[in-house]
Design goal:
Blueprint: E1 11-12, E2 26-27, E3 38-41, E4 44-48, E5 61-65, E6 70-73, H1 80-90, E7 94-98, H2 110-117, E8 120-123, E9 134-135, E10 141-143, E11 148-153, E12 162-166, E13 171-175, H3 193-204, E14 210-213, H4 222-247, E15 249-251, H5 252-259, H6 268-284, E16 288-290, E17 296-299
Parallel strand pairs: 6-7, 7-8, 8-9, 13-14
Antiparallel strand pairs: 1-2, 3-4, 4-5, 5-6, 10-11, 11-12, 12-13, 15-17, 16-17
Helix pairs in contact: 3-4, 4-6, 5-6
The chain binds zinc ion.
Length: about 300
């Protein structure tokens, strides 16, 4: 794994939204840096883009897999300095580019990297301006002399979300399916909480050794984090269902006020989207009914 520091040098990682579990916010890695290659494992390097925000944490992680021939996962935002840093680290060896999904902090860096390298571009779908050379489906593999990587369709955060499983190290490139130090925002209608929980169970079954997320440090206790993600969502769902039972009916803004205490005002829009995704899941299960992001929701 990555170069490790002594446990007494544990540090709190950069603050990101919805941190509700202190355990998930500590790491033993050296600090993340922008636009410099950091060795993560014998086969993997990470370059973090300089696009920090309350949505991206310290920034979007781009991963370079392989030493002889290089696969780039998530080239990141459109950012000349970031593309330059990727090209410098890869030394002319980039052959493939894969995107976990097409949100603006993950795939807009593709065209510049493609123009410089001619690499084959692969993703689930052409969205958000992305042009693929090959559409990946669940189970599709890239087999090179050095490594085997498998696409795992993981809808939930986005309908076209893929994780990439590096068999050699049992490492999962999780994109935004799982982040380090934070839970993930599920925004309906493309975001789907029911699908998200199924996709968590799907990657749990891979018997992972580590998770390399698009945001934050490498996760070295994957099962514990996936279990916490799952229980956190189910607890939130039960809480919202309970609140609606008490209140009879409510708008999403009222549920956010009752469920998230205290909440930084900047996070309220995300909390609303998250509550909406929970309500849609409960509606799919016939437990509640309601009317979109702004309407009134009630128990059935
Ligand atoms: Zn995303």
């Amino acid at each position: 794994m990555s170069p490790r520091r002594a446990p007494q040098q544990l540090r709190r990682s950069k603050s990101v939204p919805f941190v509700t579990d202190a355990r998930a916010t500590f790491t033993t890695e050296p600090p993340l840096v922008h636009d410099k290659a950091q060795t993560v494992s014998p086969l993997v390097r990470r370059i973090t883009a300089a696009n920090p925000s309350h949505m991206t944490g310290f920034g979007t992680n781009t991963y370079l897999v392989g030493n002889d021939e290089v696969l780039v996962i998530d080239p990141g935002p459109e950012d000349a300095a970031h593309t330059k840093a990727i090209l410098k680290a890869a030394k002319g060896r980039i052959r493939w580019i894969m995107c976990t999904h097409t949100h603006p902090d993950h795939s807009p860096g593709v065209p510049a990297l493609k123009a410089e390298t001619g690499a084959e571009v692969m993703a689930w779908s052409n969205r958000g301006g992305l042009r693929t050379d090959r559409r990946l489906r669940d189970g599709d593999q890239l087999v090179t002399d050095e490594f085997i990587i498998t696409a795992v369709h993981t809808p939930g955060h986005a309908g076209n979300h893929l994780c990439f499983f590096l068999e050699n190290e049992r490492m999962l490139f999780s994109g935004d399916h799982i982040m380090q130090g934070s839970t993930v925002v599920i925004t309906p209608p493309d975001g789907d909480m029911g699908a998200y929980l199924e996709s968590l169970a799907k990657v749990r079954a891979l018997e992972l050794t580590s998770i390399a997320p698009a945001h934050g440090y490498v996760i070295t206790d994957p099962n514990a984090v996936i279990d916490w993600y799952t229980s956190h969502r189910l607890e939130r769902e039960a809480q919202l269902h309970g609140l609606l039972l008490e209140m009879g009916s409510a708008r999403i803004a009222q549920l956010v006020e009752a469920a998230y205490v205290p909440l930084d005002p900047i996070l309220i829009p995300m909390a609303k989207r998250s509550v909406h995704s929970h309500l849609r899941k409960l509606a799919d299960e016939g437990k509640v009914e309601g009317n979109g992001a702004r309407g009134v929701w009630s128990v059935v």
